Amino acid sequence: MGLFTCCAIVSAQTTTAINGTPYMDETYVTGVVYFANRSQTAPIRYNVFQDLVEYQQNGKALVLDPNATIKKVHFGTAVLIPQKYESNGKPKFGYFAVLDSGKVTLLAKKKVIFLAAKKGGALDGSDQPAEYKRSADTFYYKIGNGEVQEVESIKSMIASFPDKQEELSQFAKKEKISPRKEKELIQFVQYYNSL
Length: 195
Description:
Blueprint: E1 7-9, E2 18-19, E3 29-35, E4 39-47, E5 52-57, E6 60-64, E7 70-75, E8 78-87, E9 90-100, E10 104-115, E11 130-143, E12 149-150, H1 154-160, H2 165-175, H3 182-194
Helix pairs in contact: 1-2, 2-3
């Protein structure tokens, strides 16, 4: 019986002439995958581009798709939780980095894009190799055990909270909280969770 019951072999990718990395960190780090009634330790890394947790078992690289049987994946300083969310108008599961938790949990959806190689002009030597490039994180939150919601604006986020809306509005205005800045969103959610 394998380490995890929901795994598949990672297909080998050739990475010659590709700049950047599809991983949060290319190095495997000892981590723990938590299921409903058990946990398992393994060398782990997160493939942001494919939204898969990769782990090693008996010298083989395997993957763990995001799904409801996994409660969380903890490795290094990162904690990932699989959540159902909407992507391009369709519901799907994905891994989210936990930024803060309490009454409200603040999550970040990490993103890496792939840029294909580009041929330059015949004489100028401006060829550009293929590249994995980090893109800005998208932030989400959930209230208690509710649905994951994208942070579109601070105003709409506050309106969705069940209480403390006046205090939150004043705090957001005073601190000039941006819905696109991780540190400010963490500060905002920590403030709410402390009320």
